[in-house]
């Protein structure tokens, strides 16, 4: 925690200095939005930054704020406002082939401070780049490309936050690279990092719950069991078709021995994910989605409410309906949006009866978003979802409105 506060202090000081510098020395470095270059793996650098004169350090960030009125089975807690997160970026070009970038997130008004990314990249060849530090495990696409201003919805996808651990990062090293050929681009990433611990089955959710591992800050200091987590991804993009990615993340999550004493067999967690995105020609409809499968070796002594298989994902459909100069904004855009999502935390049947194990959720979220600029979004969503318990009792019906804004700065 002290390290996070110290880092935050340095960033605050940098921004304070920036504010005192003559505005003529400030240079806005826009995000690279060229469609034939960007892939999800580029998201870490595909952000707007502000540079001071000829200084090698640039800064940036984004903020999200929202309002919601949500009810469950006709009962509501009323009106609610929140700032779910504010994120700060600090980047530096140490050499034309050596770059550093950090991403620090303040959640719930500063209640939690976390380092989501802090890595040094060294380029040897377009296909061979070394990355080390706190890296974002590239499982799926959302974990890499999660910045609020890029999305038309107030909430993040349920499956990517409540089944997979969104913004999941760990200390480690790895290689990544990208190669172009005419309209095609190929990219890969592979990392060895610290990983999960026993909290994924020993948590206050009383079910198999991978996001519980994010609560342990010790993963940034040492491995919980001495076993590396392997994460790898390959992706292919065509300028006219879109991008598809395949990723895998797996390793041992439990401590199998201590001081030479055998405690348990090595128990693994394995995740496979598929992601895609495309733009339909002519009507400019943007479609993006992701689906993931989780397999966990749960001890036989645990009850069946701890699932050994999970699956879930989402699909977003975004349709621009207006793009023009409007109320002082150039090329402002009005979008219709629809998200469909599903997650099943316990895939399978009861051993005793053969009946289906439920513990699932589905949601439909229509919405409207307004982008005065590409880097700022105002969004109105209506969320409707149903969630069943493990026994398949009549589902809880949850619905309500959500209004939010998000912007890079």
Number of helices in the DSSP assignment: 2
**Largest sheet features:** 16 strands, antiparallel, barrel
Question: Could you say what the CATH topology is called?
Answer: Porin
User: What's the total number of strands?
Assistant: 20
Percentage beta strand: over 45%
As for the number of domains, it is: 1
Q: Spell out the helices and strands N to C.
A: HEEEEEEEHEEEEEEEEEEEEE
Shape: globular
Radius of gyration: 22 Å
**What is the overall pLDDT average?**
90
* Spatial strand sequence of the major β-sheet: 3-4-5-6-7-8-9-10-11-14-15-16-17-18-19-20
CATH architecture: Beta Barrel
Helical amount among residues, as a percent range?
under 10%
CATH class: Mainly Beta
- Which residues form runs of ≥5 with pLDDT under 50? 1-26, 32-36
Structural class: mainly beta
Give the CA-CA distance, first to last residue: 25 Å
Can you give a write-up of this model?
The chain is mainly beta and 409 residues long. It has helices at 2-20, 158-163, and strands spanning 26-29, 49-52, 57-72, 75-95, 98-107, 112-125, 128-136, 169-181, 184-193, 229-238, 242-252, 257-258, 261-262, 268-280, 285-296, 309-326, 329-344, 360-373, 376-387, 396-408. The chain contains two helices and 20 strands. Strand 10 (229-238) and strand 11 (242-252) form a beta hairpin. The two termini are 25 Å apart. The model is unreliable at 1-26 and 32-36 (pLDDT under 50).
